[in-house]
Amino acid sequence: MSSKDVLPAVQEKSAPTDEEVGEELCLLDLEDADSLLLHVEDLISQHLDEFPEDQLDDDAARYAAKMTKASITDGTRDGHLRIIKYYITFHIRRNKKWDPKRVDDKTPHDITAFITQKCGPVEQGFEGRKYSTAVSTRAALTMWYKNIRPNESLTEWWLDSVSNTWRGLPTRSRQVSQFMVGLEKTKAKSGEVSSSARALALEDIHRLHNHCLDPNLTLSQKRAGIIRYTAYVLAWLMLLRIDEVIKLRFENFEKIPGERKYVDISLNTRKQNQTGLLHSWRLHANDSDPVVCPVRAFILLASLYGPEIKKSGPLFLHVTAQGAVMQSQPLTASVLSRALSRDLQGLGYASWALYGTHSFRCGGCQYRIKVKRGSADMVAAWGGWSQVEAVTMFRYFYSPNDNHEFMHDYDRNY
Question: Mean pLDDT across the stretch 207-215?
């Protein structure tokens, strides 16, 4: 064999480093925090007995009450305010010169110190509260720092080297995320069930279909239901979060005239892939289960929009109370998230608050593994996830909130 015939060596990709996996876990933590914000009022109300008012009766507590009242005027957030008062009181009692409105490199430590006091182990002198208390506390403190610095970014935490000023929200800092990831692992080892979002399974999607397309609905309800359900089924099939599916545009779709077997969808970027590389899906018709058939969903949507709606811009549009489809008003992630909560409540789900923006992605992953019998690498490729992201993908396959009701069948041999 000549030198020309020698094949080039295949360059193997190195396994993700601990640092890369840790970074991905922090990103997932931030995504979970965003997902839970939709139901944070309910979450906080469940833990208010851990922040009793009668323990806020000294000079530090009175100062904290004065500060929160002056900075937050939203009277509907009583639960948030009580946690914030505890946070300020905790630090003032430790250091009378502590400034509640100071935001610098020490602020993330202030946040984790308070959460440690509430959720750290009892044998070490802490209160031993559950991980969900930490989640509630973080959400309340997010509100505090949003209110005292209303012009800052709500998604970042970074140092402006020019002004030497920290920008964004300290509750979104890497230090706080690492702390929350570690706390969740510690609580899980002690047997505590995680508060992560619950997956929407195939039967849940069937129920949502029947609920959104109920023939007894009014005209405007039917029209809004078609749009909601199309968004639901696409998010579930494509493994997208609500905030991702809502960004789909007419331009992302390639539908060949007369082709009824599949539809191609392409996105320029994903939230976890900002390199500009194209990711695409080919969604096939599903005659064996028409409820989750993407082609049928598109036909419904096309029939609703008709020739009046221009086929450009955002795909999912607002429907007025009179049933008019408003192309100038695209559906937003917050509106669709609240609609999901209402739909689940309308179906009688007592656990509706456990479902969030990740529930479609989690359920879609489980569907492709358990029902479609796909492999983990197939699901990773379908979702467009990197090798590092795939390491943490197990969180989507399994959640402590899912599937325990079926455990009695797990060892069935017939």
Answer: 96
pLDDT at 3 over 50: no
Which residue is associated with the tokens 């309308």?
Answer: 346
185 closest CA partner among 97, 248, 119, 122:
119
Of residues 30 and 151, the one with the higher pLDDT is 151
Contacts of 370 (CB under 8 A, 6+ apart): none
Please indicate whether residue 20 or residue 89 has the higher confidence score (pLDDT). 89
d(CA 29, CA 24): 9
Q: What is the 3-state secondary structure (H, E, C) of the chain?
A: CCHHHCCCCCCCCCCCCHHHHHHHHHHHHHHHHHHHHHHHHHHHHCCHHHCCHHHCCCHHHHHHHHHHHHHCCCCCCHHHHHHHHHHHHHHHHHCCCCCCCCCCCCHHHHHHHHHHHHHCCHHHCCCCCCHHHHHHHHHHHHHHHHHHCCCCCCCCEEEECCCCEEEECHHHCHHHHHHHHHHHHHHHHCCCCCCCCCCCCHHHHHHHHHHHCCCCCCHHHHHHHHHHHHHHHHHHHHCCCHHHHCCCEHHHEECCCCCCCEEEEEECCECCECCCCCEEEEEECCCCCHHHCHHHHHHHHHHHHHHHCCCCCECCEEECCCCCEEEEEECCHHHHHHHHHHHHHHCCCCCHHHCCCCHHHHHHHHHHHHCCCCCHHHHHHHHCCCHHHHHCCHHHHCCCCCCHHHHHHCCCCC
Surface-to-core class of residue 195, CB atoms within 10 Å of its CB (0-12 exposed, 13-18 middle, 19+ buried) = buried
Share of the chain above pLDDT 90, in %: 48
Give the model's pLDDT for residue 285.
Answer: 94
Residues forming beta bridges with residue 165, ordered by sequence position? 160
pLDDT digits (tens, 9 = 90+) for 238-249: 999 888 899 999
Does the pTM surpass 0.90? The reply is no
Closest by CA to 170, choosing from 194, 149, 192, 200, is 149
